[in-house]
Design brief:
Shape: globular
Helix content: 25-40%
Low-confidence stretches: 1-26, 512-526
Order of helices and strands: HHEEEHHEEHHHHEHHEEHEHEEHHHHHEH
Structural class: alpha+beta
Number of helices: 18
Strand order of the largest sheet: 1-2-6-3-5-4
Number of domains: 2
Number of strands: 12
CATH topology of the largest domain: Cytochrome Bc1 Complex, Chain A, domain 1
Strand content: 15-25%
Largest sheet: 6 strands, mixed
Distance between the termini: 90 Å
Mean pLDDT: 88
């Protein structure tokens, strides 16, 4: 009686489950335990599920070159928002004839007052369109981009043209930029993370006084040297339409080309309307090819009092060792990316795990074996004409000599045995990371713009997936061997009393002939 009254009180779906468990449904033997019912058999009293199917829409990237040389690239993407922006063949590598720091200033001056708009107008428009905007500079590109509702694409392109081609750069804005840059320089010295400073130092060591080795961060002595005239002179020579790509994701291509013609072709740049704005000196674009030099850059600094809130960080010495790699147009570029994933690494406090690099070499051979190692991470920086493969490691200054020995040993081991399992894991992890990143609309935008800027076209992700799959163990050994033949680059920051000399580091990587990695153990503790 009790069980019957309970059944009457149960909801309909629960009653059905009770019938199923008690053998009340066809196809299920009465009294069958619920744990013995196979999940492969459909339940007759449940509606059949409807599954989504893969879209067969063509997401090919379209590219159109306008009469002034501007390239317009776009790709459709489902959604109510679009990303549109301009990528320019500009950056710190082109500042050889200027005081270093121009690109740093342009970042701070972006989306300010223009010929036809104020900063308040620009920000108010983005707010109405639910959009955000950003400007980022690197050593070889300058990116202006925004994400807005698709209905605001035309207005976004108009703002991009104003920001890129018709900025006012008023004396007040330049003064504010000087203050912002000064704050950045002070902040870099105070913050506990030293990655940005080390990135500057390793490039300065690898490409001494040329192209990629020129400072991206404005040197302190140049803050007061950069003025309106100098900025307009740089923009006049480097921000020409032929050096730009206007790219969009989630946009109709013909509509984007129409707006580009209207705002980037028919309307002139501000320095063309008023030639007096730019410096009268003729400063042609520097097209020098980067020259890898190798070398060492050291900065002795007391980091013992660096703290982060109530939990101070331990005193660390930072070391980066780099070797000459390949450009992103080289046949071994994808191979070097797989090698980078195979080396992997991270911080000592990272939990690791599948997909985070727990099985990479710098985790298994370094971080898991030496409790005093705070960080060990591999990086592969690739540019249009060269590259830099490096490992960044951190530990207490008393362990600096041993740290150097461990890192050079891992570099030398790159031409050693590679198991099939290790190689396949690195390849699958790289493919996974590539596809996961391309789920983000801004990442797709940057990928399109950078590829079109470098080659005039865009290769689809499937092309790189296949290239990754085709990487073989002998390809890794060849690429690693070529890197080990180059002179090492070293950047060191902190208390460096125990740092070995550059010749010791070079000797640990090469044998007496300078061709093959050495297998002997070098004494760094002299």
């Amino acid at each position: 009686m009790f069980s019957c009254s309970v059944r009457r009180a149960l909801p309909k779906c629960t009653t059905s489950i009770v019938r199923l468990c008690s053998g009340g449904e066809a196809g299920v033997k009465a009294g069958t335990p619920i744990t013995k019912i196979p999940l492969s058999e459909p339940v007759s009293w449940l509606a059949q599920p409807l599954y989504s199917s893969a879209s067969e829409s063509c997401y090919e990237t379209k590219v159109t070159t306008l009469e002034n040389g501007l390239r317009v690239a776009s790709e459709p993407k489902f959604g109510n928002f679009c990303t549109v922006g301009v990528v320019i063949d500009s950056g710190s590598r082109y500042e050889v004839a200027y005081p270093s720091g121009i690109s740093h200033f342009l970042e701070k001056l972006a989306f300010g007052r223009t010929e036809n708009m104020t900063r308040e107008d620009i920000m108010g428009t983005f707010e109405k369109l639910g959009g955000i905007c950003d400007c980022q500079s690197s050593r070889d590109t300058l990116i202006y981009a925004t994400s807005v509702e698709s209905k605001g694409m035309a207005k976004a392109v108009e703002i991009m043209s104003e920001v890129v081609l018709r900025p006012k750069l008023t004396p007040e804005e330049v003064l504010d930029a000087q203050m912002a840059v000064t704050f950045d320089l002070e902040d870099l010295q105070l913050r506990p993370e030293k990655d940005t400073l080390l990135l500057e130092m390793i490039h300065a060591a690898a490409f001494r006084d040329n192209t990629l080795g020129l400072p991206k961060i404005c040197p302190t002595e140049n803050v007061v040297k950069i003025d309106q005239s100098l900025l307009f002179s740089y923009l006049k020579h480097h921000h020409t339409p032929s050096r730009m790509v206007l790219a969009g994701v989630g946009i109709d291509h013909d509509a984007l080309v129409e707006q580009a013609q209207k705002y980037f072709v028919e309307k002139p740049a501000i320095w063309e309307m008023d030639p007096k704005l730019a410096n009268t000196r003729s400063l042609a674009v520097d097209n020098s090819v980067s020259q890898y030099t190798g070398g060492i850059v050291k900065d002795e600094m007391d980091l013992s009092d660096v703290s982060l809130g109530p939990n101070p960080l331990p005193e660390l010495a930072h070391l980066v060792i780099g070797l000459e790699s390949v450009s992103h147009q080289h046949n071994d570029f994808v191979t070097c990316c797989v090698l980078n994933m195979m080396m992997g690494g991270g911080g000592s406090f990272s939990a690791g795990g599948p997909g985070k690099g727990m099985y990479t070499r710098l985790y298994t051979n370094v971080l898991n074996r030496y409790h005093w190692m705070h960080n060990a991470t591999a990086y592969n920086h690739s540019y249009n004409d060269c590259g830099l493969f490096c490992i960044h490691a951190s530990a207490h200054p008393s362990h600096l000599a041993e740290l150097t020995q461990i890192i050079t040993r891992e570099f030398a081991a790159m031409v050693g045995y590679i198991s099939k399992e290790e190689l396949e894991r690195a390849k699958v992890q790289l493919q996974s990371m590539l596809l996961m990143n391309l789920e983000s609309r801004p990442v797709v935008f940057e990928d399109i713009a950078r590829q079109v800027l470098a080659t005039g076209t865009r290769l689809p992700p499937q092309h790189f997936i296949e290239m990754i799959s085709n990487v073989r163990g002998e390809d890794i050994l060849r690429a690693a061997g070529n890197m080990l033949r180059s002179k090492p680059s070293v950047a060191a920051l902190g208390t460096l009393a125990c740092l070995p000399g550059l010749s010791d580091i070079e000797g640990a990587l090469l044998d007496k002939n300078g061709l093959l990695p050495s297998r002997r153990r070098f004494n760094f503790f002299r």
